[in-house]
Amino acid sequence: MGNWDSFKDVYNEALNCKKCPLHSGRKNVVFGTGSEKADIMFIGEAPGYNEDIQGEPFVGAAGKLLNKLLNSVELKREQVYIANIIKCRPPKNRDPLTEEIDICKDYLYAQIDFINPQVICTLGNFATKLILKKNVGITSVRGKLFKVGGRLVLPIYHPAAALYTPSYLPSLEKDFITMKKVIEKEIKIHIEDEMESKEQLGLF
Fold first, then answer.
1. Which of 39, 40, 74, 162 has the most other CB atoms within 10 Å of its CB?
2. Sign, CA torsion 68/74/77/81
3. Residue-level pLDDT at 34
4. Rounded Cα gap, residues 175 and 7, in angstroms
């Protein structure tokens, strides 16, 4: 993991990163957006076409749905932090490769460390597997709370999945309500699994 003294140091290094071949096809590095003191952090998979053009995560149709879901629990994008595992767009929006994730994940871990959110919402399979360090499908764990490195992790469907499969939307809406209640400490938290050893996990 990189030895960064500040959040800006992480940003500056990511902005000039050429550690994997994805840098050659990018228009912009899509680092992340939102409050650097956010209680809630969303982690997606990788930038798409619109994100690469604008240099900001979740600005297409999935981003509009994410904004709508945030508004439904009286939150705004400016209050949360949104990032992806991969900071550069894979060609033709293909899935990120294992080696690309391994190269890029330290930027994400540093973002988590500096922001220090109360709750991390992993959006979809790739983010969930990376943060939980488990080979699990999102369907089996969505809406359940886990604890990793002292932080709560709530896996939820990726908003893009709900656009393709509208039957996922009620689950997403329910999980956003759960997320808000956890932050406001309105519900008794049931932890599915707790992983506390940073050394063992190599996390954050």
1. 40
2. negative
3. 97
4. 29
Dist CA 14 CA 127 (whole Å): 19
User: Which sequence spans correspond to the domains of the chain?
Assistant: 28-201
> Positive or negative CA dihedral for 63, 143, 165, 173?
negative
pLDDT tens per residue, range 17-36: 999 999 999 999 999 999 99
Residue 188's H or E segment, with its range, is none
CATH number of 28-201: 3.40.470.10
Give buried/exposed letters for 151-174 (b at 16+ CB in 10 A, else e).
bbbbbbbbbbbbeeeeebbebbee
Q: pTM (2 decimals)?
A: 0.91
Rounded distance, CA 132 to CA 78, Å?
26
